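User: Just a sanity check before I run the rest of the batch. Below are the structure tokens for the first item. I only need the designed sequence back.
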């Protein structure tokens, strides 16, 4: 009988450790990762706020900007760029649109998380308008075109000829509902 007590204790501590690790990975790491990426500019996320200034358009150079979309595994929407890529002169403002359709029977709220590749291009792609700045609510069965207005900084290293702007779409409906409930 005395041998069972240490085994139970070990099992209980193992289960508690597993729950704690899961909680840390799900609720603590994502905000820490976002802060780390914003501070360092790593992970394809631009660091800090961009201070707007009128860039000079470099008509001698053309950069291809590609657009890629992904849905988080729990996100049932159709989500895609209306244009796969554009060619732009650094310093020139350009507008593209992304299409989203809520194929479910319930109203939902989405949040798009951007990523830019290659990593050293992240600080040179400046979005002046983006659906990723705000959460995107869509009624059941509704669709929307969502704009992004951007330009490539002329200081983009000459070795970079292609920049990829990708978005992953997440369902934040439950999180948004929980925040509203907590505020009330």
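Assistant: Here's the designed sequence for the first item:
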């Amino acid at each position: 009988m005395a041998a069972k007590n240490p085994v139970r204790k070990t099992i209980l501590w193992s289960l508690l450790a597993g729950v704690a690790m899961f909680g840390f990975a799900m609720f603590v790491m994502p905000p820490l990762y976002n802060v780390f990426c914003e501070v360092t500019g790593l992970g394809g996320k631009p660091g800090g706020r961009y201070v707007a200034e009128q860039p000079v358009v470099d008509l001698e150079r053309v950069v291809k900007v590609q657009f890629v979309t992904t849905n988080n595994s729990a996100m049932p929407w159709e989500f895609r760029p209306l244009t796969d890529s554009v060619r732009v002169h650094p310093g020139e403002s350009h507008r593209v649109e992304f299409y989203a359709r809520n194929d479910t029977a319930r109203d939902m709220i989405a949040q798009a998380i951007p990523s830019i590749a290659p990593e050293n291009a992240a600080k040179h792609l400046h979005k002046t308008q983006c659906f990723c700045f705000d959460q995107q609510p869509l009624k059941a069965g509704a669709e929307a075109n969502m704009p992004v207005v951007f330009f490539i900084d002329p200081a983009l290293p000459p070795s970079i000829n292609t920049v990829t702007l990708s978005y992953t779409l997440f369902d934040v409906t439950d999180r948004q509902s929980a925040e509203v409930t907590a505020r009330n």
